[in-house]
Amino acid sequence: MLSEEERNERRQALDELIEMMRPAVQADGGDLVLVNADVETGEIEVALQGACGTCALSSMTLQGGVERILRDRLPWVTEVIGGVEDPDAVGTAIFGYGNYVPKY
What percent of the chain has pLDDT over 70? Predict the structure, then answer.
């Protein structure tokens, strides 16, 4: 079990790392949001919003970018759960963009 000081240090390091990554996501018209963080177990939940929430490449951004960076720089991170904001799931399904990827 972590001390209060250790929990605070982990949370601060996580917040700083998320803030460091946000400008790159914001440059593409989106945002990266920390949804939940269990610094004891290392389970982190993030979400992509805005243009990134409806981008077909969002899963690559989460896995290849966000998750990789979090795990590389914070060795206590055990799992990164990523979600996307998709306010128009029907529209994305019809037009084949966003979270929906058509299977041919």
Answer: 81
Half-sphere exposure of 13 (CA within 13 A, CB side): 18
How many structural domains does the chain have?
A: 1
Q: Is residue 101 part of a domain?
A: no
Contact 14, 33 (CB under 8 A): no
> Are residues 101 and 56 in contact, defined by beta-carbon separation less than 8 angstroms?
yes
- Interatomic CA distance for residues 97 and 57, integer angstroms: 9
Asked if 52 contacts 25 with a C-beta cutoff of 8 angstroms, the reply is yes
Report yes or no on 100 lying in a domain: no
pLDDT digits (tens, 9 = 90+) for 5-37: 999 999 999 999 999 999 988 988 889 999 999
Length of the chain: 104
